[in-house]
Design goal:
Layout (H helix, E strand, L loop, with lengths): L14 H13 L4 H8 L23 H10 L6 H4 L4 H9 L3 E3 L7 E3 L1 E6 L2 E6 L22 H9 L5 E7 L5 H9 L1 E8 L2 H13 L5 E5 L11 E6 L22 H8 L1 H4 E16 L4 H9 L6 E11 L2 H9 L12 H6 L2 E13 L8 E6 L5 H14 L4 H7 L1 E3 L4 E8 L6 E9 L3 E7 L1 H9 L1 E5 H10 L9 H9 L1
Parallel strand pairs: 5-6, 5-8, 6-7, 8-9, 10-12
Antiparallel strand pairs: 1-2, 3-4, 9-11, 10-11, 12-16, 13-17, 14-15, 15-16
Helix pairs in contact: 1-5, 15-18
């Protein structure tokens, strides 16, 4: 006997129904700026529902208020409020399964899902709270919200330069594929193990009129067997959990099992010249750093890849990171005590940030680099770091640097420490501190401090080399190549 298909909200309607609903949402200004103005949120990723304590924008005066309360606040509304919506729009919402009548009531309605604008598209995900008067358990394959802070960070790391084929793994709502397909990807695939996520991704693609998105089900790359991609992105589950109770959350016993499998598949599925972007939580361990582990996961072909690790947050206390995850939107349940696990793994630091892997398009050295970016910095900082490190190994890079006019960044500081070892106050230590967009601290030699002070955007590297040598700031025997090596750092 065949098991019954799982019950799924939403109906895949006609292109006309989706088109009309999309047009109505735009006509009523159901947009990120309008919603933020109405509710007091700084960004859509900071939106709070009424049940979460929002006090601004709670009165219902017009159709936009109705949409916010019905589709985002997850409130059940009576006819006195839903009648503010165009009748044809309300009929479309019901026909597509987005809105239903409350059980046993003829006029009160609630949304079966949450619907909102994000990253320039409309997206639906599962409700956070059960409808009024009901008790609904969060399904194991629940579709995670695309307007949480961590989803916002995921979207902020994705570059928007054109690509031919984009694969969004662990796709959830499909927001990575859908936003990419709407802006820069010729074709995009949203792949997820959960049938519910595939259903939601398909609905979201159709709601936005995107014929270049394919929602596919399978265990990671299994969903795209036989295909290759020039851009692969992932926001995988990363909470340590021996048993996978929630697909979007639980990432195996140490939280890295799914991440490891995603990286291990890159040699087969990432095209030459292609790039992989992932937002995740992971660890440095006593015997192996995260970047060393990523290289190990790449296997025998690792020499064909560059690995870049960009920290957003880094700490010694894993519990603090897991607490932040637990406070994210969605009923995540009890995460439990992971202290013993991290002790067994000999964890020395917990990383939250971006992993970028790029495949060589031609033979060359395999790069591994790590940095930390400012929390407020976005994809530009990550891409600058990747491009800089990639260019720095090119034979012509040092020549270009020596011919460029150099400027000390405005976000940097040179800190000089004076001590009096023999009773006379003297400068004895020189530290450079860069805070934006990438964070870096380094101790430098005294002559480098003079060099930084001379980097005012007016002189080239070669001119600075000649001037500092004439002033006897640098050693007479230092070559231009040695000077250029210092500039690259």
């Amino acid at each position: 006997m065949t098991a019954p298909a799982p019950s799924l909200p939403l109906k895949i309607g006609s292109p006309a129904q989706f088109g009309e609903l999309h047009a109505d949402l735009q006509r009523l200004d159901f947009s990120e700026p309008a919603i933020c103005r109405r509710t007091g949120a700084k960004t859509i990723f900071e939106f709070q529902t009424v049940l979460e304590g929002r006090t601004e924008g709670v009165e219902i005066r017009d159709a936009l208020d109705v949409l916010i309360r019905l589709l985002m606040d997850e409130q059940t509304l009576g006819e006195e409020h839903t009648s503010l919506l165009p009748p044809a729009m309300l009929a479309n919402l019901e026909a597509l399964g987005v809105v239903e009548r409350a059980p046993g009531e003829a006029v009160r309605r609630y949304a079966t899902v949450v619907l909102y604008p994000v990253a320039g598209v409309y997206t639906v995900s599962d409700r956070t709270f059960p409808p009024e008067g009901t008790v609904i358990k969060l399904p194991a394959d629940a579709v995670y919200s695309a307007i949480t802070s961590n989803t916002g960070r995921f979207l902020s790391i994705l570059p928007e330069d054109p690509c031919d084929a984009l694969l969004d793994l662990c796709a959830g709502t499909g927001i990575g594929a859908i936003s990419g397909a709407s802006k820069y990807a010729r074709e995009a695939w949203a792949a997820d193990l959960g049938l519910r996520s595939v259903h939601f991704s398909n609905f979201n693609a159709r709601l936005n009129g995107l014929a270049n998105v394919r929602a596919v089900q399978g265990d990671l790359y299994e969903a795209a067997a036989g295909l290759t991609f020039d851009r692969i992105v992932a926001h995988p589950p990363y909470v340590p959990a021996k048993d996978q109770k929630l697909l979007f959350r639980d990432g195996g016993e140490d939280g890295e099992q799914i991440l490891a499998r995603v990286v291990a598949g890159l040699p087969k599925y990432l095209r030459p010249g292609g790039r992989f972007y992932c937002l995740t939580l992971a660890t440095d361990r006593r015997e192996e750093t995260l970047e060393q582990r990523v290289r190990r996961w790449l296997g025998a072909d690792q020499s064909d890849f560059d690995v870049f690790i960009v920290e957003t947050e880094y700490g010694r206390r894993p519990d603090q990171f897991l607490d932040k995850i637990a406070k994210a939107k969605g009923r995540l349940g009890q995460l439990g005590d992971r202290g013993k696990l991290y002790e067994q793994l000999e964890v020395v630091g917990v990383f939250y940030g971006t992993i970028v892997v790029q495949r060589h398009s031609a033979p060359g050295p395999a790069l591994t680099a790590r940095t930390r970016k400012a929390t407020s910095a976005g994809r530009d900082a990550i891409e600058w770091f990747r491009r800089w490190e990639t260019a720095a190994v090119e034979p012509q890079f040092q020549k270009v640097l020596m011919e460029s006019r150099l400027r000390f960044p405005a976000s940097s500081a040179l800190i000089v420490t004076h001590t009096a070892p023999e009773g006379q106050l003297l400068p004895t230590q020189f530290d450079v501190n860069v805070t934006y967009p990438l964070s870096r601290e380094a101790s430098v030699e005294p002559w480098v401090a003079v060099l930084l002070g001379a980097c005012n955007g007016e002189s080239t590297g070669r001119e600075l080399f000649v001037t500092l040598k004439q002033q006897e700031v640098i050693a007479a025997g230092m070559t231009e190549e040695e000077f250029g090596t210092v500039l690259k750092q």
